[in-house]
Structure formats: C-alpha cells, structure tokens
Design goal:
17-stranded mixed sheet
Length: 440
C-alpha cells in the first residue's frame, strides 16, 4: 500500500492512481481526496475535508477537540470514523436519496454499504443529507443534522440535537434531550420529544408539537399549527394570517399517560377547555384538571385560529379573521370582530359570529346560531330544519312571524335583512320551513 504524507501546513492531496493508498494530512487545514483504490485518509489536526473517491475507503477526521472535519460522500462503501473534534458526514453530493442512521448503523440508497464508527470520546457529530428525500438519524450524542433539499425524515434520538429540515416538506423528531429544530422552506412536521425543546417552523405552513417538557414553539412565516402538549409551553404563531392553537391531540397525550397514572385521562374528560384570543400581546392559559398534578398551561401570542378538544369547548376569537373548530362535545364559539369561520363539529353547539362577515357551520346534532344587531353579513351553511335554531332574541322581535317579515326567499336560501348592511343568509332553507326554528 502506498503512503503519502503531508506537512504540518495546509495540504491539498489527491491520490493520482487506483493503488490502495494511505494519506496522512498531519497538521494544518487539509483537503484529502482518495483515488480509485481502497484508501485510508487521516486528517490529523486542523479543519480538514476528506473525500474517499472511488473504492471502499476509510476516513478519519482525527484532530483536536476544537477542530471541524468534513467527510464527503463518494462512490463505494466508505467507513467514516469519528474523532475528538466536530466531525461531519456530508452526503450533499449524492446522486440519489440516502438512508444514514448513526444509531444502529442503518444505511441505504446512495449511502448503502457505508459504515459509521464512534464512541463517547471519538464521535460523529454532524450529518448532511442529499438533494433528495432522505432518512437521517443521529446518535446518543449531540448531533447537528441538515436535511438539504427534498422531503426528509430526520431523527435526533438521544442527545441535545440541532435539526434543520432546510428545503422540502420535512418530518423531524427530536427524541430525548434538549433539541433545537428549524423547518426551513416547505411544509414541515416537528415533534420535540422529551425534555425542553425549541421548534421554529420557518417558511410555509408547518405543524409543531413540543410533546413533553417546557417547549418554545415559533411558527415563523406561513399558517402554522401549534399543538398543545404537556409542560409549560410558549406558543408564538409569528407570521401568517391563520396560525392555529390545536387542542385536539390532548386525548392521545392523556391516554398515553393513563398507563403510568391511572385516572389521568378520566380526570381530563370531566373538564371544559376555555380559551380567548387577545387582540394583541400574550394570552395565558392555565387550567387545573381536578388538582395541581393534572393541568394544562401555556402562553400564546400571534394566534388567529383555535381547534378544540373532544370535550365541551368555550372558544373566543378576537378582532382578526378567526377560524374556530369545536370538534366533539357541546361547544360555544365566539368570533367577535373580523370575518370569522366557525365550525361546531359534533355535539350541540352554540355559534356567535360577532361583528364582521362570518361563515357558520354547526355540524352534526342540534346547534344554535346566535346573532345580535351590527353582526354584519353572515352565512349559515348547514342549517337543518326542525333540528337547529336561529336565535334572534337580541333584535326584539315579538314573534317568529315578525322575524320572517324581514326575510326573503331565493331559489337556494332565505335571507334576513336586519337593518343597514346587516343580514343573515341561511343556505338550503326558506321562510316556510325555518319559521318554526326561530327563537325570539
């Protein structure tokens, strides 16, 4: 086997043959590139870049604790060895998607046949994906993982990790440890895992779930979904016209905790979720579920939309254009100002559009649509005859017939003119069949 030795300065070494060669970079910031054989590349001290070239190569970052070594993808089945410094395996030049998992050593795609070696003192720390749809995983130590382009799946596992999906619609799971995650461009899905995590959606419409621990969730640009979970979280929608606080996953969370704490889910099921969106600043949510052991607590800001829980929800919007979902249970939804969309879901719901031009959908079961003077131009899309109610008590009508006198039929709907620019349009209904469903 041929041997090439560098100096203690900055070396650029290219193996010129297909002979199996060992290259020592020694000191300095080196660039070492193998040839066509099965080569051994040793970076030595300094910030080095190693590329095996063709063949089945062994790459050693080596170096001091402060050194940064980058080991690049090349053709062949390569073996990447961790060092004392910060060592990165970089697949950004791979011609197709890669599967590269530090923990367990799973590889596939363009990385098939590659191997990773590390321990507590000689670690592989960074991993960079290709421009395609990759599966990337860290180790039990602290890792930085970048997905690159493509729709990637990134797993942090244990350790305090930094995960960046970059471009594409990525899915990230921090696992154990205090993790920092950034979605980048694309519609990303992020799970924080255990402990305190920091999630930033970046651009586009992202879904962020801190899971256990006291987490910080920032939606970034786009219409983001911030999931309510265990711990005292901070939820900030940041940019976007429709950032959503989502209570709907609480059932899964409390059902999981039921195994460790019998009665946990049963306690939750007896309580009603109530939340009001502030027009500005930060809102504070705290609800004890029977005792101080069972509670939900988080701070929230820049939120326009709310998705409720399976129980009875009490949800109030603000002066913005809100979208409010009650889902299961007997819910009460208030749009307040703005042009709002209210969705009752299953259950006997009460919907108040408030000021602005609102769209109301009660969903299944008996619902009540409540209006007041000055509520704007409102639309009910799913009124059911002899099931739902139109609540017009605030207008001072003496009888339902007085209210009907303010209405007109069209081919597809009835419309109530209530003074000025205010009216209520009820799709699929007419004066003759809605008269029995009016409350005055």
């Amino acid at each position: 086997m041929a041997i090439i030795e560098g100096t203690d300065g900055n070396n650029t070494i290219l193996v010129p043959t297909s002979e199996n060669t060992t290259v020592y970079g020694r000191g300095g910031d080196d660039i070492l590139t193998g040839g066509g054989g099965n080569d051994y590349l040793y970076g030595g001290t300094g910030n080095d870049i190693l590329c095996g070239g063709a063949g089945n190569d062994n790459l050693y970052g080596q170096g001091a604790a402060t050194d940064i070594d980058i080991m690049l993808y090349s053709r062949g089945n390569d073996h990447f060895h961790g060092g004392a410094g910060w060592d990165v395996v970089d697949y950004s030049a791979a011609p197709r998607a890669v599967i590269a998992m530090f923990s367990g050593g799973r590889t596939g795609g363009a990385a098939k046949g590659d191997r990773f070696s590390f321990d507590v003192n000689l670690t592989l720390d960074g991993l960079v994906g290709s421009a395609f749809d990759d599966i990337l995983g860290g180790s039990v130590y602290d890792n930085i993982i970048r997905g690159g382009d493509g729709d990637d799946k990134i797993l942090g596992f244990a350790g305090d990790d930094k995960l960046n999906g970059e471009s594409g619609n990525d899915r990230m799971d921090g696992g154990d440890g205090v993790d920092r995650m950034t979605g980048g461009a694309g519609e990303d899905f992020m799970l924080g895992g255990k402990n305190r995590d920091f999630l930033n959606g970046g651009g586009d419409n992202d879904i962020l779930n801190g899971e256990r621990g006291n987490d910080l969730l920032r939606g970034g640009n786009g219409d983001d979904t911030l999931v309510v979970s265990e711990g005292r979280d901070v939820l900030d929608g940041e940019g976007g016209a429709h950032d959503l606080v989502d209570f709907s996953k609480l059932e899964d969370m409390f059902t999981a905790n039921e195994k460790a704490d019998p009665g946990y889910a049963a306690v939750l099921l007896t309580y009603r979720i109530g939340i009001a969106l502030p027009d500005s600043g930060t809102g504070n949510f705290l609800q004890y579920l029977g005792d101080r052991k069972h509670q939900l607590q988080f701070d929230y800001s820049n939120i326009e939309d709310v998705r409720g829980f399976q129980n009875d929800d009490y949800i109030q919007g603000n002066g913005l254009d809100n979208r409010l979902w009650g889902l299961e249970g007997n819910d009460e939804l208030f749009g307040h100002g703005g042009n709002d969309e209210l969705f009752g879901g299953n259950g006997r719901d009460v919907l108040h559009g408030g000021e602005g031009n609102d769209t109301l959908e009660g969903g299944a079961n008996r619902d009540r649509f409540r209006f007041e003077p000055g509520n704007g131009k409102d639309l009910i899309v799913d009124f059911t005859d002899d099931v739902d109610y139109l609540d017009l008590r605030a207008f001072g009508f003496q009888t339902a017939g007085d209210a009907i006198a303010q209405a007109s039929d069209t081919d597809d709907y009835v419309i109530f003119y209530l003074g000025g620019d205010n009216f209520i349009r009820v799709n699929g209904m007419f004066k003759s069949n809605i008269v029995d469903d009016i409350i005055v």
